[in-house]
Amino acid sequence: MNLSHRVLKAFVELAECRHFTRAAERCHLSQSAFSQLIQRLEQDAGVPMFVRNTRNVSLSAEGALFLERARRLIADMEMSVADLRDHATLRKGRVAVAALPSLAADVVPRAFARFHGKHPGVTLEIFDRLSDACLELVRQERVDFALTAPGPRLAEFQCRLLRSEPFFLVCSPAHPLARRRRVTLRELAGCEFVHMARNSSVRQHVDPLTAGAGVLESSIEIEQLATLAGLIANGLGVSLVPELTLFQFARRDLAVIPLDAPTLRRPLLLVQRKGAVLSAAAAELLAITEEFLARPMPRRKAVS
Amino acid sequence: MNLSHRVLKAFVELAECRHFTRAAERCHLSQSAFSQLIQRLEQDAGVPMFVRNTRNVSLSAEGALFLERARRLIADMEMSVADLRDHATLRKGRVAVAALPSLAADVVPRAFARFHGKHPGVTLEIFDRLSDACLELVRQERVDFALTAPGPRLAEFQCRLLRSEPFFLVCSPAHPLARRRRVTLRELAGCEFVHMARNSSVRQHVDPLTAGAGVLESSIEIEQLATLAGLIANGLGVSLVPELTLFQFARRDLAVIPLDAPTLRRPLLLVQRKGAVLSAAAAELLAITEEFLARPMPRRKAVS
DNA sequence: GTCAATTACGTTCTCCGTAAGGATG
DNA sequence: CATCCTTACGGAGAACGTAATTGAC
To answer: Which of A61, A80, A277 is opposite residue B278, by nearest beta carbon?
Structure first.
């Protein structure tokens, strides 16, 4: 037996108006076709659903029983399809994103705002984590995708490079290099550095660099960019940070100088589970995010 | 959009084996037909359910969402149809009957026993009431049908005569008429009567009769046949009762004599709501009941 | 006699299967 | 190059509509 929405609708319609001709009209069928449809339903079910002569139509006891079921089935079907379409058209849904703190602070919120304006029915979630944690969230299927830097076991994911960004030196305005328009790696020799934690993507890119430059390294290791800014502002060292983190260092008591090292750039990746396909909502959010990533971030003026 | 059981099944099958060829086999379709079926589903829904290339098939985010719904819909459909068929084939159901006490005491229980033996899944209910109450139960749709005698406002029902039964005189063995093999109405003149309540069907038939016969009437009015039997056995009067009640009077201390009044018979009716049609189970129960009504009740010997 | 459901019948259209086409690993 | 999904196409059967038939009031 092959119940369909059409047949159930016809059945309920007839049960309600108890009149083949009228029910047929409501179903946009000829009266004859409608009659045959009901006959097929009864034959398939093996039960007469209606008791009828040419003058009267009424539900049989079994038909009455089935009516409740049919109504519920129709409602469930319509609900399911409506829900599906709502998700496809971004009227409903949920998108969860993992992003590096630097992205979570600015690019992602702006993308969220634009997305939410267009699709207020979709729930958005963000996890601001360091790169390892971002990858773990993808692995656990807790997020649709991650915006992060390369991390361990990257091969088990499906990745795409979204952007790579240059580094900047951040130091106190009193630092010898503070007035320079650009600095090179060599010029950093002898500087005392403060670093982000080892598992931060910034650190992982800066490490090989400073190793070659023979810089002094402090033993301080931190997780928050704001902490780093506070340390540097107080003359406890300098640091190299990628472009997207600069919003944290746009302070009167900090100097920011472009690093002249074209080969050193931090890659920002889109990371998904292998074989996974983004939902319509996630794809749209990603597209918006990429727009904001592509255009250079509006630089807040760093007052020196 | 017109969801059907077939399509939902195909969808779930493909979602589970993620392989068109295998899923098609399980649905007893050619691979091509199956592919087209899925394409139609996606087109109707307006959402790609699967992400596929020639090598891999997997659910899209929206497809995964729909999968749960589809499984539930399929289960509900199958459940509904199975339930319907169970009712039609008497594997499930409920039949409620209202019957006069005289029928409820013997004919109906025997019919119930036979029916229950054949269809143990069907719940049976009986209401043993006087005729007015029987009709009221039909009116309230609390019973599928009633087996009763004519009552007030009978015209609003759909009735069929099942049987009409002769009356018998019940009296004490010490009564002057107790040894007779038959009695006529005339011979009852001067007898003191005890009656069932005015709303009992027995009374309603006996009343016009005794009115013509000029019998003495007691003011006692009762509802239970057993009470009547007790009164008569103790010499407090005689009474006329229809055949099916005789099981109550088959006692050593009572005499039962056929009444010679061929025109006086109590009709037993099948009563339903107008336009109503019996369920399969009710129809079967009625058929069995009619069998037992048709064959003369096994007479228990009345010991005089 | 009229209204309404069913049946008859020719037509349309959906759906299926065979076979060719094309993409992916 | 083998696998496997998609497209092409012709045919079978389901479903539809018009029209005639039957049945109830």
So the answer is: A61
